[in-house]
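Cross-check.
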Amino acid sequence: MPRARNETFIIYTSDTHPNGRHPVADAIKLLTVKETAKLLTVSTKTIRRWVAAKEFPAPIILAAGTIRFRESAILTWLDKREADGRPLGC
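Predicted model, tokenized:
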């Protein structure tokens, strides 16, 4: 179906978005291993061990040696563990 010619698109930038941020930046927040460990109050070694054991959301590989975690995936993982009654270390 062809688009209507009078269709209007709004493109937000950090200067024009109502809360001063781009909506994609709010939707996809990537955390470093250190930030992830701080969020969960565990060591970075624990995060790496959980990833290796596939007990944690898979990281996003940005470049050789550079990994990030989606904050939304971490929070979902944490909510599921709490709902299952499992503490972080188990």
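Residues 14 and 20 are 5 Å apart (CA to CA). The chain is about 40% helix and 10% strand. Passed to J.P. for a second look.
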